[in-house]
Structures are given as structure tokens and as C-alpha cells.
Amino acid sequence: MEATTASQKHTKGAVVFDLMGTCTDWKSSIVASLQQQPPTGVDIPSLAAAWRSGFFTEILSRFERGEPQEDIDITHRRVLDTLLKEAGISLNVWGDGVRQNLVDSWHHQTAKAKTILGWPDSVPGIELLKQDYFVVVLANGTTRLQMDIVKSTGLPFHSLFSSQLLQLTKPDPQMYLRAVELLNLNPSDCIMVAAHAYDLRAAAKIGMKTVYIQRNTEDLTEDMDQIRTEFDAFVDGTTGDLNGGIPAVAALLKQGI
Questions:
Q1: Which residues have a Cβ under 8 Å from the Cβ of 4 and sit 6 or more positions away?
Q2: 221 vs 121: CA distance, rounded Å
Q3: Which keywords does the record carry (predicted)?
Q4: Distance in angstroms (rounded) separating the CA atoms of residues 235 and 78
Q5: What pTM value is reported for the model?
Q6: Same domain, 92 and 168
Q7: Domain-located, residue 41
Q8: Digit-coded pLDDT (tens) for 125-164
């Protein structure tokens, strides 16, 4: 039987969010940043999508090889360099300064790039959840990356747990367990919300409840018919409706899942 401490009685538990893609529209901001650079003839939306996909491939490969987590900026730069080389874009065209600015655009607003945008339902939905739950981030990347994104978007989380901070990488079950321990809660008191099926599959293994939130930019190769029945709940976050997305998660939790 799971033990309940005095501190746990003051909250219903915790809602644990993935960050990029789940709570933020990374694609709009990264495409805008890429479009500000000297023209190359490369299809910019495709480059942005390949950059994001390449990042996921890198971190999952490192995890499968048992390698330690890596600074997300280093990973983003290596993937970008590889993609630009494949596209025939040399350092003479997009030099180190341009490439570093592009890597930095994942963090915060610059003079020539839009900020990482929160989906329109993110802030109001998180505010609703905070009435009853601790609401935190658990995501791969650095703490500085998470702080920069939260500052630029105004996402009102209670706390941020990065892979850098925990020295673990999702989907390692130990990363989810460590976050639950730091929250002084039981896994069954925590709900993982993400737009990535691999993330929720790992969270479910340790006993967390799972809510899949569909976003236009994420899990494009997953079978959504399967996803709808695989997890504890499924929410449509693709319409821009302020009653959908994360507010819909809050409504589901009010009803109980």
C-alpha cells in the first residue's frame, strides 16, 4: 500500500508536463528564425522539421547506447551542421554566428526571430490546473533552456525538472521516478501530459497516469487511432480552441480519469 505523508494531503497531486511541442509551438518560432537568415534555396519548413526530428533521433540513440545526457545546445548544433552539410550549405553561406543564433532561437526571443510561442491554450490551462495540483515540467534539455522558454512564453509552472538537473534522460524510467520523489508524491498521484507517445509509455511503466495531448507538430508518424485508446485520456490540442488542449485536460481531471 502506498504511504501518504502530511504534505501530500494539501494537494491532489501533480500534473507533469513535457515542454517543447506539448506546451509550445516550436515550429512557428524556429521557421521564423530560419527565414531571417541569408537565403539558401532550402525549403525552410522542411529544414525545421528535419532539425526537430534529428534532435529526437540523437537523444534516443544516446539513451539506447547508455550514454550520459548532453547539453541540448550541443545536440542542436551538431544536428544542424549535419543537415546543412547535406543540403550543401557551407560555413561561407551560414557561418558560425548564424548557426549559433539559430541554436539560441530555441531558447528565447532575439532581435530578428520570434520567441518560442506557447500554444494559445497553454497558459490558461496551466492556471486552471494550478488551482488543484502542483504543475511542473519534466523534459529533456538544460535547466537554462527551460527557464528561457518559460520566461519568453509566460508559462506559469511551479517548478522545472530538466534532464541536466536530474542527470537522467527520458524515456529512462528513473527520470520519472526521481521527479516523483522530489515532489514527495506517489506515482499514482502524478499525471504525465505529453504530445509524445514514447514519453507517456515510459511514465505509465512506473504507475503514473497518462494524458496524450495531440499537437499539429508532434508524433506525425504515430497511429492516432491507437493513441486514443492506449493512454488514460486523449485530448485534441490541434484546433486552437481555448476550451481544448490543456483546459480540456483540467476538465478531465475535475471529472476524474
A1: 186
A2: 24
A3: Hydrolase
A4: 34
A5: 0.89
A6: no
A7: yes
A8: 999 999 999 999 999 999 999 999 999 889 999 999 999 9
Q: Supply the CATH number for residue 244's domain.
A: 3.40.50.1000
17/50 same-domain check: no
Specify whether 140 is located in the same domain as 17: yes
* Residue 35 domain boundaries: 27-104
Find residue 4's DSSP bridge partners: none
Per DSSP, helices labelled H in 17-71 are 26-35, 44-64
Q: Is 13:190 a contact under the CB 8 Å cutoff?
A: yes
Closest by Cα among 93, 91, 117 to 33: 117
Question: In the chain, how many domains are there?
Answer: 2
**Phi and psi at residue 17, to the nearest 5°:** -110, 140
| Same domain flag for 153 and 173 | yes
pLDDT-derived band at 43, boundaries 50, 70, 90: very high
131 & 206 share domain: yes
For helices 96-104 and 26-35, the axis angle rounded to 10 degrees is: 160
4-12's contacts with Cβ under 8 Å and 24+ in sequence apart are 4/186, 5/184, 7/184, 8/184, 8/185, 8/186, 8/189, 11/132, 11/133, 11/134, 12/132, 12/133, 12/189, 12/253
For the stretch 162-204, pLDDT in tens is 999 999 999 999 999 999 999 999 999 999 999 999 999 999 9
Q: Does residue 165 share a domain with residue 153? A: yes
Q: How many Cα atoms are found within 13 Å in the side-chain-facing hemisphere of 4?
A: 8
Question: Which residues are registered as beta bridge partners of 135?
Answer: 15
